[in-house]
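User: Predict the complex with magnesium ion.
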Amino acid sequence: MRSGLVDQGVMGENGGISAIVPDVSVVVPIHDEVESLPLLLEAIASTLASNQISYEIICVDDGSTDGSGDFLKQEGQIRSDLKAVILRRNYGQTAAMAAGFYYAVGKAIVTLDADLQNDPADIPMLLAKLDEGYDLVSGWRQKRQDGAVNRLLPSKIANWLIRRTTSVNIHDYGCSLKAYRPELLADMNLYGELHRFLPALAYIEGARITEVPVRHHARRFGRSKYGIWRTFRVLMDLLTILFMKKFLTRPMHVFGLLGLISMFSGTAIGIYLTFVKLAFGEMIGNRPLLILAVLLLVTGVQLFCFGLLAELLMRTYHESQGRPIYRVREVVAKNVK
Ligand code: UDP
Ligand code: MG
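Assistant: Here is the predicted structure with magnesium ion placed in the model:
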């Protein structure tokens, strides 16, 4: 998060950025949504202005080919409440959101989709919840308006899996409408399709997380950018998250342990084979067990070495970026140095 980017200290025509630090930065990733954009900007502006919430809208054009980028550039020159960030090509929703976070300066950050499926009218409610002392408030599309078989079912399964494995107890990870404290986002790095795991990543960073039911509408223009394949990518990302949650700071505990078990079993089988060969003179050259023993030994050594390498990498990961292995919520003391 970078500060001091917005220096317009006046109320814009659209009632937008009214102070140096707006109450909220609304981050919208956009890929080919030109028909929705005018309606979207209007909806966000009118909701927030009528609730006396000062705001900036950060529209990130993620390599659109339908003129969304040109529209945003035009509007960016006219409106004082809009920052148009144009990416060079299509990087995907996660990257587009990360770009938006980088330019956001607000006291809170809200993300939502550009296709009007999320309702900007829900933003004040999310912000109110955030003010109750949460670091992340996630929307829950109770009445989701998407296809039943190709979207709802995979998403139900994925949500169940994520809930079971990440111990973040919310219903709808896929909902883009979420509100964050900026400090939280500054602590997180996004890769892959990890935006839907932001609650899980936030949990790793020790955040207070909650959810509120939000409205959801069917798509009015264009098509969804995703199909059934997304489910598999989500599952792979889930594995990454799981590993990060449990073993980020101690990879040797998982690789080392597996390696040792494997080496130990390999050695045990080897000793047994040596014994039957020497004591009973049995042929062991053509026994499948011999192959298993060798395989276990080799994989065991590899896993062990992998764990050592992972330990080194983990240290580089934390130290090169000055990332502590803990997060402090607050320090209460009469004299803090
Ligand atoms: N999006 C994006 N880059 C992409 C794909 C999607 O910025 O490569 C944006 C898209 O414009 C929309 C949001 O991400 O604002 C969610 O996409 P979509 O509505 O297609 O997903 P769904 O609602 O079907 O899950
Ligand atoms: Mg959508």
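Residues 1-15 have pLDDT under 50 and may be disordered.
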